[in-house]
Amino acid sequence: MRNIQRYALGGLSLVSKFSFIIDLSPYFLFASMDYPLSPIAVDGLGSMLTFYIPVVLLTVFLLLYLTRKRPPVEWNELYAVDKKTAKKEAWLSVGYLLLTQVILGLSFNMGLHFPGTDIYSTGSHSQTDVWIWAVTYMITYTVLPLLWLRRRGFSLRKLFSSLQWIRDLWIIVAYWALDFFGPILAGATDFIGGITASQYAQGVPLGIFFNALGAGLPVVVMMHMIFIPRVALLVKNKLTVIVLGGLFYSVFSIFDQGVDYSTLAIGLTSFTYVVMTQTLVGMGKATFTVVTGNPFIHFITLHVVSARVPFDTRMYIEIFKLK
User: Does the reported pTM lie above 0.90?
Assistant: First the structure.
């Protein structure tokens, strides 16, 4: 009972802290000054209250409480992390991510999720556009970083053999269902209606394939195999690691669909909205790895195999003209 009360008080404390963050967020300051809002930044308060804060409460604090008795993850063993170089390598990953995001976003209009900063509409993008995005992101954030990890003694085979899928199955099923059905039931997607069974059968796996190449695996490698293990080895407080992981993910999202950097004013609302919201999403993703040591769970529960399916399936059906 005391543990429950302690975590409940911690949750209430978190709510108050996030309320404070919301009040002081630069996004709300700029919005109150009537700075123009990009498409992604419309109704920031409503988005925070109805989606982003609930995500944090359910995926961060509830999961931390439910897994509180688990032994700590052996980061140095699973991910071949050397504590002497961990800090330098963590900063290196941040610098590499920020530099490549700026280059790919400003020069080629590419973001973590297709189609970058553009707002997709029927006929606006081609199959070639999808392939270029997926291959570019795969090479930049999966292939090259994995080669770098391998040079430091990291072994995918050793990692896979150490993962406890059966132990973590309840986490995968429960949170996948929440993230998959939540947007559908909330009416936030166009997943239901006007799509045939044949189109679903083709479009769902096709979307998962491209999103895995262009978004899922890059986040798995850069954030969950490189950044989080090094930070977790240096910082013993799980919540601190989770917050830093969230901030790292927000850098991955600065060129997401609907941002606009055409002017300073609208660029400020775009950037501050992304940091405010995607830090919270990233905290949810980070929690799965921090409590399990498994970098792939978030891929299923809070990314490619869950919410991205209802959000992106129709787009891929239209672009690839699936019948």
Answer: yes
Distance (Å, whole) CA 218 – CA 208: 14
Backbone dihedral angles phi then psi of residue 215, each to the nearest 5 degrees = -130, -50
Examine the pLDDT at 302 and tell me if it is beyond 60.
Answer: yes
Closest CA to 208 of 60, 290, 312: 312
Q: Are 214 and 114 in contact (CB under 8 A)?
A: yes
Whether residue 205 has a cis bond before it, omega within 30° of 0? no
Q: Nearest CA to 156 among 145, 167, 166?
A: 145
Q: Which residues contact 147 (CB under 8 A, 6 or more apart)?
A: none
Is there a contact between 63 and 174 (Cβ–Cβ < 8 Å)? no
Note the pLDDT tens digit of each residue in 236-285: 999 999 999 999 999 999 999 999 999 999 999 999 999 999 999 999 99
Task: Give the span between the Cα atoms of 98 and 89, in whole angstroms.
Answer: 14
- Domain tally for the chain? 1
Neighbour-count burial of 84, counting CB atoms closer than 10 A to its CB (0-12 exposed, 13-18 middle, 19+ buried): exposed
Task: For 124-175, write each residue's pLDDT tens digit.
Answer: 999 999 999 999 999 999 999 999 999 999 999 999 999 999 999 999 999 9
Structural domain harbouring 153: 2-319
DSSP of 52-103? IHHHHIIIIIHHHHHTTTSPPP-HHHHH---HHHHHHHHHHHHHHHHHHHHI
271 vs 250: CA distance, rounded Å? 9
